[in-house]
Design a protein that fits this description.
7 helices; rod-shaped
Length: 254
């Protein structure tokens, strides 16, 4: 197993910016059974053709199809894996017996002017990000405060509604109570009137039974007996009964 280090690899991006990869390391090994054949065909420096030259070719292909931002930032994290796959694919295609174990790529070196510009852009992006996050926090706080206000308003509304319903219920209860009291009073008065009517009817019926002609005659005689003097007839001088006279004469005249 060996590690090949490829130095100072130029890379021209699709936008025309020239950058350099300081070092790309390729860890590889040549299979024992392939040593004779591979050395015979490509010499003892077989790795120059299949690793060193291939790395330069793949880097140039990669850079020419991508912008500086894509090479330096967006797709840099996948570059090592893509290089390893490309190297292994060609080694297998031509039966070289070379196994690519891993590829390590350093961050490319860009011109100072471009680097400063990128740093400024990144700083501005960071500031923008912070400002955006602050704005989100402010908006979230405002939204939370608005929600609190809505919840408080809804609670107040619910409380007022409960109070109104309670007042309505109390008024309806008071109204029903008055109706019940009125009904009770009316029933009492009706019962009293019915009782008085019944008593009057009973007394009238009793009087109808009791006040026979004989009883009335008896009551008249009894009343006359209690007075000192009584006068009867069309002409007062015709008859006069004084106390102690025979009452039979009076009964005969009635």
């Amino acid at each position: 197993m060996q590690t090949d280090s490829i130095k100072e690899i130029p890379c021209g991006t699709s936008g025309g910016v020239l950058i350099y990869f300081d070092t790309i390391e390729v860890v590889n090994r040549l299979k024992m059974e392939s040593v004779h054949n591979t050395v015979k065909q490509y010499g003892v420096n077989y790795d120059k053709m299949w690793i060193f030259d291939k790395i330069h070719h793949e880097i140039n292909q990669f850079c020419s199809k991508h912008t500086l931002r894509e090479v330096f930032i967006d797709q840099f994290d996948t570059l090592d894996e893509n290089l390893m796959n490309a190297l292994q694919s060609d080694c297998d295609k031509y039966n070289t017996g070379i196994d690519i174990i891993t590829v390590r790529v350093t961050k490319p070196r860009i011109p100072d002017s471009v680097r400063m510009s990128y740093e400024r852009i990144e700083s501005e992006k960071a500031a923008l990000y912070l400002a955006t996050e602050r704005q989100k926090v402010v908006e979230k706080d405002a939204e939370t405060e608005a929600k609190r206000g809505r919840i408080a308003a809804e609670n107040d509304k619910a409380i007022r509604q409960i109070q109104i319903e309670k007042e309505i219920s109390e008024r309806e209860g008071s109204k029903k109570m008055k109706v019940i009291e009125g009904e009770i009073l009316l029933a009492h008065e009706k019962a009293t009137a019915d009782a008085a009517l019944y008593s009057a009817r009973a007394e009238a019926e009793a009087n109808n039974i009791r006040l026979t002609p004989q009883f009335l005659k008896y009551q008249a005689i009894k009343a006359i007996g209690n007075i000192s003097k009584a006068y009867f007839g069309e002409s007062i001088p015709k008859m006069m009964i004084t106390e102690g006279d025979n009452l039979n004469k009076l009964l005969a005249t009635i």
